[in-house]
């Protein structure tokens, strides 16, 4: 930085950026500990929640919903398959396509994990007024496409 530029540490946007990053890291750490009794990690929960909501996704569709590459998903899926939590089924129309589904055990485990996640969110955010939660959510939702566009420009 040049002498004429101020350091960003006290700038409200910088402070907000750091606070969001810290909150995200802390929430991930807390969620990791909370899910441990189920033998799940946050990335497992992400996959299972999406398959719970959108049964029959392809691996590529799942990766797009998770905002990760297919390779990230392909490392997680075998772990869940091995535990009998998900299965791949052939598509009724296109035999080249495999659809991902939760098994009955996977569905029960996903419900338990979602209850853990919901309790954690409630415990952490219940002191905040709903209006504040809405503002934070809208701000973060608006930031995602801008970050994605920035990433693509690099």
TrEMBL record:
Cited SMART domains: HTH_MARR
Q: Which superkingdom heads the taxonomic lineage of this protein's source?
A: Bacteria
The family database entries (PROSITE patterns) matched by this protein are listed as: HTH_MARR_1, HTH_MARR_2
Q: Which InterPro entries match?
A: HTH_MarR-typ (IPR000835), Tscrpt_reg_MarR-type_CS (IPR023187), WH-like_DNA-bd_sf (IPR036388), WH_DNA-bd_sf (IPR036390)
Q: Which GO terms describe its molecular function?
A: DNA binding; DNA-binding transcription factor activity
Cite the HTH marR-type domain residue spans from the record.
1-149
* Keywords of the record: DNA-binding, Transcription, Transcription regulation
What is the recorded name of this protein? DNA-binding MarR family transcriptional regulator
């Amino acid at each position: 930085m040049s002498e004429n530029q101020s350091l960003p540490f006290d700038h409200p946007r910088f402070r907000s950026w750091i606070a969001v990053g810290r909150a995200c890291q802390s929430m991930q750490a807390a969620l990791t500990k909370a899910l441990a009794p189920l033998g799940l990690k946050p990335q497992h929960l992400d996959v299972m929640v999406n398959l719970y909501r959108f049964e029959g996704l392809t691996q590529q569709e799942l990766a797009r919903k998770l905002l990760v590459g297919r390779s990230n998903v392909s490392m997680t899926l075998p772990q869940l398959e091995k535990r009998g939590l998900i299965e791949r089924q052939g598509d009724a129309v296109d035999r080249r396509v495999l659809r991902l589904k939760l098994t009955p055990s996977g569905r029960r485990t996903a419900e338990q994990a979602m209850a853990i996640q919901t309790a954690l969110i409630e415990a952490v955010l219940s002191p905040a007024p709903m209006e504040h939660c809405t503002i934070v959510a809208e701000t973060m939702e608006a930031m995602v496409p801008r970050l994605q566009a920035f990433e693509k420009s690099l």
